Amino acid sequence: MFNTRFNLFAALLTTLMLLVACNTSAQPAEAPEADLPAAAQEEKPKPEAEPEAAPQADEEVVELLKKIEAASDKLNTLKTRVRYTRLQTLTGDEQRRFGDFFYAAGDEKKPTRFAMMFDRLIIDERARPMKTWYIFDGNWLLERDHDDKTAVRRELVPKGAEQSDMLNMGEGQLPIPLKLKADKVLKQYKVTKLKDVPFGDQTLHHLKLTPHKGKDATPIELWFDSETLLLQKIVTDEDGDEIELLFPTPKLNPEIEDEVFETQLPKKDDGWQIQEVPIEG
Fold first, then answer.
1. Could you read off the pLDDT of 62-104 as tens digits, one per residue?
2. Distance between CA 106 and CA 8 in Å, rounded?
3. What is the pLDDT of residues 210-266, one digit of tens each?
4. pTM, two decimal places
5. Phi (first) and psi of residue 12, to 5 degrees
6. Pair 83, 242: CB distance under 8 Å
7. Are 188 and 158 in contact (CB under 8 A)?
8. What distance in Å separates the CA atoms of residue 55 and residue 58, rounded to the nearest whole number?
9. pLDDT at 279
10. I want to staple 78 with a disulfide (CB 3.0 to 4.6 A). Which of 45, 103, 162, 229 is the partner?
11. 80 contacts 248 by C-beta, under 8 angstroms
12. What is the spatial distance between Cα 89 and Cα 92, in angstroms, rounded to a whole number?
């Protein structure tokens, strides 16, 4: 049986933490070679060879990625229903969560923010209501479970630190690539265009992204609306299980209140169990 914790966001949290560690850790200045002892100079490792250039991509793929990039540049906010499905490969058990997804692209004043609120859970065809929020405001990630009245707020990016767009594929490397930079994607992945597929009254472009590095690296499959070029579906693997995120009703650039991305903890005197984890901890 599934652990009912939302494992995709555990993976997302881990990825964010790794990004923060890589991007914000202070790097000690390297001493000039002349100031080093002779032995240290002799033992200094040779610079690594330049990585091989990425294989040349198919012209049709490059053109499509550039069109998707141009379309995502117009994406300022997004609201959509979302369906998260996890299929446990060994047992065939399936878990589905349904809810709402909100996104606001970063600008000069605010970082990229997103929120996901799940309101229904189905495990083995048994459904029950739920209310759990996952909110990232560019600084803190808040998990707020209204069913058991627990909330955990984790600081992932130091306040004021320079950061890339967390949901820009090729930069942020999060599981929800709403934005995409064609050249950066092609440097990291072999991109294959598969057969277009019908989806209701739409047609979806189907792309498979296989990382260049790592023999056992997990590929990602993405589906984009052929007209709007908005992301509709993601399929990948996590710990051997199949993960699917579906965005069936994306609305481009709706007005979203700032309160949706609020990450303040609830008050203890309202019966909540709360925890705050600063980045130093």
1. 999 999 999 999 999 999 999 999 998 888 889 999 999 999 9
2. 23
3. 988 765 678 899 999 999 999 999 998 887 889 999 999 999 999 999 999 999 999
4. 0.76
5. -60, -45
6. no
7. no
8. 10
9. 85
10. 103
11. yes
12. 5
Q: What is the residue-averaged pLDDT of the chain?
A: 80
Q: Under a CB-based contact definition with an 8 Å cutoff, are residues 103 and 117 in contact?
A: no
Non-local (6+) Cβ contacts of 119 within 8 A are 98, 99, 100, 129, 130, 131
Q: Which residues share a beta bridge with 79?
A: 102, 251
Question: Which pLDDT does position 184 carry in this prediction?
Answer: 87
| Distance separating alpha carbons of residues 195 and 205, to the nearest angstrom | 7
Query: ∠ CA 3-15-53 to the nearest 5 degrees?
Result: 130
Question: Could you tell me which residues come within 8 angstroms of residue 17 by beta carbon, excluding any fewer than 6 positions away?
Answer: 156
Whole-number pLDDT of residue 162: 64
H helix runs in 112-216, sequence order: 182-188
DSSP annotation of 186: H
Q: What whole-number distance in Å separates Cα of residue 54 and Cα of residue 118? A: 39
In 3D, which of 103, 104, 100, 102 has the Cα closest to residue 82?
A: 100
Phi, psi of 253 (to 5 degrees): 55, 45
CA-to-CA distance for 109 and 248, rounded, in angstroms? 30
Query: What DSSP line would sit under 25-77, residue for residue?
Result: SPPPPPPPGGGS-HHHHHHPPPPPPPPPPPPPPPHHHHHHHHHHHHHHHT-SE
Mean pLDDT, range 105-110, rounded to an integer? 86
What's the confidence (pLDDT) of residue 15?
41
257: phi then psi, degrees, rounded to nearest 5 = -65, 145
H/E element, 275: strand 273-277
Largest separation between any pair of C-alpha atoms in the chain: 71
